[in-house]
Amino acid sequence: MRVARVALIRLHGRLVGATGHPRNPRPPWTLAYLEALLLRDGRYGVRFHDQLTHPLPGARLAAWLGRWAPQVVVLQVTTLDLDALAEATAVIAALPERPVVLAVGQALALGTLPGVDLCLPGEAEERALGVIADLDAGRPVAPAGDGPALVEHPSRLPPPSWDRARLAAYPMHYPLRLAARARWGHLLTGRGCPGGCLFCSPVTRESYGTRLRLREPGEILAEVRALAALGVNVLSLDDDDFTASREHVLAFCEGLAGAAPGMRWICHARLDDLDASLMERMAAAGCVLLRFGVEAAAPRVLRILHKTQREDWEDLAKEVFHRARALGMATTALVLLGNPDETLEEAQRSIALARALQPDMVQFHYFTPYPGSPAFTRWREHIPPAAVPSLYHYRAPPVNLSRMSDEELAAIHGAAYRRVLLRPAFALAHLRTYAPFYRHNPGVLLDLLPQRSAR
Ligand code: SF4
Asked: What domains are there in the chain, each with its CATH number?
């Protein structure tokens, strides 16, 4: 079979749209890098479509695929997209010449997927390129190694092919301490996270594996320069834990001012990665928002989550949030409710901590044992297959592993936002801090209002 055309599609399930989340979609990195690899190879025509940012209903997807007539379709799919997968594979099966269907993404933790010819788990961009080359050459497809694929040398991948229109599809909706219109760019500076948290899965992170694989600083900064040339003034570093390597953070901070003067950036960080001098360097280098997985307050719950063995997590969180405030960096606290064996009192302690941290933003997620997480492996027999597509950390879980009743959990989740965010004092302080930003970015303010978040 000669492969002349390849279609890359990120799917988008109905549940995701129904909750109004995610509000901050990141690029589908596996497909973005696969596209870059295919373009560098030069033998294939490539078209990319993101159903999350530009949803096409079945008939229009059929028309799009019909016009392009690809020999290979690569679908990026999570367990939230299984309805969309059924629709897409039905559309593909009805094409006059059915292409080979490859799948990448978290849903592959379920094993094989209906309508898919070959599943490529993990960071599958290099493996997918190899499979497409095998198909094109009429060779038998080379067998996969054990476990999910990992990109061992991320600096050897070509950068994703961004243009202004494509970047505009992935704006973040975080208010920033910035008196200008935010023009967002995205960057993955490395792969892997040593954390090993019980709940962590590729639904909520961008890479696989616990081993850090970091890009070369010079190569990262070349990509930053290219993004700045496209008008980007805020970078979202989409690494799972950008601060896992102190040397990596310092090298980035050191080079950024020369590569893109005035560039602002945000990242995910772990509380226990940071110290005063590192935070000072980050603030001086333009970091304007740190997003922390605080998760919980009670040491017993933190141990269950495999988040940390530290007994002083609450004190550490307060110290780091206070220091960030003093340095002018905003903070987001991510907190989990409904954790395995968690009591109502322990959940209330987490909410009290979230309030005490005085974050600029807070998100209360439900503990969700997604396929692909250690939690799914551990509690699999409690999770009926029919419940898997409705596992979503923004919705009350179909499987409640805590010691709270479903009603208590739902009630405490609603009360958490009221206790932390929906207070006149918080709203006033927030508007005072972010008024200059909202003047230039009114859409972000509108997006935060309740009537918009209900969509
Ligand atoms: S939750 Fe965060 S810190 Fe924990 S393993 Fe996942 S990416 Fe790493």
From this structure: 5-137 (3.40.50.280), 161-453 (3.80.30.20)
